[in-house]
Amino acid sequence: MDSATDGSVGEAGLQRSGFLPDRIIHLHPTRLCNLACLHCYSESDPHHRAALDTDLLIASLPLLRAEGYAAISLSGGEPLVYPALDRVVAEAQALGFRVTMVSNGLLANERMDPLLDRLDGMAISFDGLAPTHNRLRGRHDAFPRASAALKRLADRGRSVGAAISLERDSIPELPDLADHLVDHGARALQVRPVARAGRARTLPGGTFLTAADRARLYLVTLALEQELPDVRIHCDLAPAQGLWRERAAYASLLADCATGEERPLADLVNPLVIDESGMLKPIAYDFDPGFDVMPLDLLTPSRLADYKRQRLPRLRDVVGAALAGLEARHDLVDWFDHCARLSEATAEPQDALAGSSKEVA
Predict the structure, then answer these.
(1) What's the CA gap between 53 and 159, in Å, rounded?
(2) Nearest to residue 271, comparing CAs of 290, 289, 285, 260?
(3) How far is CA 66 from the centre of its chain?
(4) What residue ranges define each of the domains in the chain, with the CATH number in brackets?
(5) What is the pTM of this model?
(6) CA–CA separation, 294 and 278 (whole Å)
(7) For 253-280, how does the pLDDT look when each residue is reduced to its tens digit (9 = 90+)?
(8) DSSP assignment of 307-352, as one string?
């Protein structure tokens, strides 16, 4: 989320589509991962073999580009274990997509350089200083290896950042972690609380941030912005009142549905998530399945038109309710997680439009 703008106009003068500066696809091509992190929202690990059908994905990219999406952010699982990743990156960039990646860094080695050099941006994920990071990642050398990957990429002239997820007890580690990452070449830091999703649901309740903790984390990131003026620092937490004032960013989604049918999907659903099964989901990987858009194997212009007419109003209602609830709040909100939790509370059974016509393995 980019809360530093006025919420009305984004890149190239386009009307904003939600609280993001761009229209983006979050692509999770596999749940296979070389780690089994305790807080993983997708519950990825070395035993998950489900992966997205590459031909199906590539065939869908022209339509998604025509629907207004401009960027693809690769995540996982660990995206670097996806066998066809280089083909996906090449095909997406040929269509004009900007392609970035979030990786745990353990496989970001010299063998991967031809692929990594083609990316438009990359971030290595961190969860705190070495003891915290290694504990959550279940590997004693996870922190030094991720740090070494960050430094190697920066030394090669790559623009590389860090994606930081923090538990309640690891907030005090953020200043020293930021210094460490900047010393290793990070030029951007994105900070967010660990979300109560996926495997993280099994963590102790004290893992997650209270309202006071969210305020503390937000203030620490503001201080880091002053201390590190040459580093782009972004916190996924935002003041509720600030989001309320920027609610016009959702004007396209909240407009009359007849108008919505005429607008590209990227104006209405942003970000769009594609998971390892090929399901298109709104806003977050863990958004309730009752709000799924449709599977890739059913994706056609006519079915998208049906979605905008028949199913989009339910998403509009959830986002509208989430926005309305901000008016009287004066705390800090992790917006996309807030919407995902609200989706769980208001979900209904999936209908035939969201069901896949085949299994995607």
Answers:
(1) 30
(2) 285
(3) 21
(4) 1-361 (3.20.20.70)
(5) 0.91
(6) 9
(7) 998 655 556 899 999 999 999 999 999 9
(8) HHHHTHHHHHHHHHHHHHTTTT--SEEEHHHHHHHHHHHH-----G
